[in-house]
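EI: anyone free to look at a 401-residue chain?
SC: sure, send it
EI:
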Amino acid sequence: MRRGAYGALLAMGWLALSGCDSGPQILGWEGADTALPQPLPWFGGPRYYGQWPRGFPDDPSFFPIGVWMQNPANAARHRAVGVNHYVGLWQGPTEEQMTDMVAAGMPVVCEQAGVWQAHLDNATIHGWLNADAPDNAQENPDGSYAPCILPSVTQARYREMATADPTRPVTLMLGQGVATPDWVGRGECTGQTEDYPLYARAADVLVNYTYPLNNDRPLELVATGIENLNRYAGYTKPIMADLEASNINGTVRPTPHQLRAEVWMSLIHGAAGVQYFCHQIEPNFSETDCLDDPPTAAALTQLNAQLVELAPVLNTQSFGLAPTSSNPDVPIHAVLKKSGAERYVFAVSMADAATNASFSLTGIGTASSVEVIGEGRNLMPANGAFEDAFEGYGVHLYRLR
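SC: here you go
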């Protein structure tokens, strides 16, 4: 069974966390025995954002759901599907863009460029964008490529931005090399994984994108990217998953099932928020492709509504679980969370094939029934465990009663 970094964390039994916490918070599982699940390393949750008075809310009911580089004129459409902030403004911010963003009530993470200095007191700006994929080969105006931007350059830029405005966090986006070290898009920097811990120092919030469907790669690569970037950052900073939500090159569009899988793979493997890439680049350009396709727009609406509903749960410490799978080629990855007195298990199939999974209640406590959230059904535990069937890349979310 393929374990990866996720399985390694469970095997190592993490007992010390990085970030805002001084140490592990072992939650009191009511009715649990002494064999508690292991806490997974964590940046500390929403209170992390309390360092910046003009940054993201530190309210546990807020969960970051962003969209990449969109026209402010479309903010109302994005808000309608559950997006709560923009990341990037094309060749901005401009006065017109800021006027539209304020009118739409849509927060933004943008560059310190354009008219940014005139808007330092504008509450619509929730953060600053350092760079998009400095780890990739950089395209020149003539179509040739220069090497990646050195981590030291991104670190210097981060210091400049934080000095210019210490009231908002700085975000950095990193590309496919995080998940795929041999990805040729890094040019001369291909294989230099030692760069990534240095890039991780160049921001307060980190974003990873892989777009596996568009690049004909396994869907579970999104989880690898989140795992790796958390590790590169020492589990001290929030990692956002930038996910493909459109038919980028006119060759493949994520189905609603695949989109849901990418979201929950990311969250179960440590993402602190999501953002969507909604553009179609070829054969015809459209920046709102994800909204213009009705099934995708409906899937985003449903997904994001569930993220908002579960925000107080998602914003808590994760504990590692190791469910068993009837198909050894189909690992089921899962985390345990607690919000108030309620216990939750979030699980995802890490392969495109069916299996049955068994979840032990050891260390979690007793449960008379298990609600499968959003599916209108309940499971009955037996012999200290509950079982469920998973289709390929299936996701099930459980509330223990």
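EI: The first strand starts at residue 65 and ends at 68.
SC: 👍
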